[in-house]
Amino acid sequence: MRAWTLTSPDDHVRLSDVPTPALRGGGVLVEVLAAHVPAYTKMVVEGNRGGLPVPLTLGPSCIARVIDVAPDVFHVAPGDIVVDSALLDAGGGDAILVGWVGLGGSGAGSGRTRRMRDVWRDGVFAEQALCAKETMVRLPGAENHPDLARLSFLPWLCVAAKGLHAAGPIAGRDVAVVGATGQMGGAAVLLALAEGAATVTAAGRNREALDRLAELGPRVRTCQLTGDRATDAAGIGPVDVVLDTLGATPTADATMAAYDSLRVEGTLVLVGGVRQDLTIPYGDLMHRKLTLRGSWMSDDATVTSVWNLVRSGALDLSAIGLRTVGLDDPAAALDLAANTTGLNFVALVP
Ligand SMILES: NC(=O)c1ccc[n+]([C@@H]2O[C@H](COP(=O)([O-])OP(=O)(O)OC[C@H]3O[C@@H](n4cnc5c(N)ncnc54)[C@H](OP(=O)(O)O)[C@@H]3O)[C@@H](O)[C@H]2O)c1
């Protein structure tokens, strides 16, 4: 079968003919129907987001149809439409993303995560994939969904949902998303609207992307980030909840503007890719009774609740622009993904 592979840390992604994976214990063999190619995939491949366990087939998550299951797999069956979350979690902070960068806990990894990556290494940018059963969640009724490629955005919606839920129920609260012009941010805006936020302030730099978010409805406010912490805080808030979905920023100013924008008893949740330290004033956090949370990936219950929002029509994915690519030209696909953001994403349909 055909797959996007990497053989060494300084390799480019290449289209390769590889053996079709053979079923083994704890495994689910799937036909990959569509896989989101994250906007920062090229950065991941270039080694800017931590080490990939090479050699491997790349690709963190997908929508797939189950072909076969190992005898010890009971929660999914041949013919089911599933989402592969990539998350394999052994508990105690030892978690890996199969086919991708990113380790749970401190991020440093352990003997256990190394063993997990030895056994479950290959991802889903391929015609078929053998997935660990723990990464699979069934999507009941998805067999009849008219646009399965669009559903490959589900894992991003689930990460955003888990982050928002870390702040408690969203209904009736004023929510802001900092980095709303990115794909995770766009997902968070859609989620917060679907879950009944009173207002959703979309904050980001890109005016065009902000205008598109404003068209989602009258509950959306926009704030164009200037880079000045005080100005941005005044533009974002006051709000009850902020989800930070920023990519790698050169300073922590936008995140600290988000912190400043909180009302008393507000919550800031970090899910983005910022690699900066935050200077949090002890007395301010205490007197304003703020909560600062981190959130990483998602879980099965969140996947099911987000799928039910989509399935019921409460979360309308038609606002998202979908660009599909095939396996033929990985370099062009990664370039397209890097230039496709806002409420748009690239799906690989192998
Ligand atoms: N916690 C988790 O479980 C989890 C899971 C998946 C991904 N992530 C992280 O989420 C982050 C965002 O992912 P994504 O898919 O949304 O990526 P993306 O589409 O590339 O979006 C990046 C966002 O960051 C903003 N940004 C980048 N540099 C900036 C700067 N210097 N100042 C202000 N804003 C800046 C971008 O704004 P412009 O539009 O103005 O460029 C955009 O809104 C990634 O870095 C990833 O590491 C976390």
Explain what the structure shows.
The protein is α/β, with parallel strands linked by helices and 350 residues long. The chain has two domains: 2-154 and 298-348, Quinone Oxidoreductase, Chain A, domain 1 (Alpha-Beta Complex), CATH 3.90.180.10; 167-294, NAD(P)-binding Rossmann-like Domain (Rossmann fold, 3-Layer(aba) Sandwich), CATH 3.40.50.720. It is built from ten helices and 18 strands. It has helices at 41-45, 111-119, 154-165, 183-194, 207-214, 229-236, 253-260, 282-287, 300-312, 330-338, and strands spanning 2-6, 14-17, 27-37, 56-57, 62-69, 81-84, 87-89, 95-97, 128-132, 136-138, 174-178, 199-204, 220-224, 239-244, 262-270, 291-294, 321-325, 344-348. Strand 14 (239-244), helix 7 and strand 15 (262-270) form a beta-alpha-beta unit. Helix 3 packs across helix 4 (183-194). The structure holds NADP nicotinamide-adenine-dinucleotide phosphate.
Each distinct ligand: NADP nicotinamide-adenine-dinucleotide phosphate
End-to-end separation = 10 Å
Poorly predicted tracts of residues: none
Radius of gyration: 20 Å
Average per-residue pLDDT, rounded, comes to 96
Short description:
The chain has helices at 41-45, 111-119, 154-165, 183-194, 207-214, 229-236, 253-260, 282-287, 300-312, 330-338; strands at residues 2-6, 14-17, 27-37, 56-57, 62-69, 81-84, 87-89, 95-97, 128-132, 136-138, 174-178, 199-204, 220-224, 239-244, 262-270, 291-294, 321-325, 344-348. With 350 residues, the protein is of the alpha/beta class.
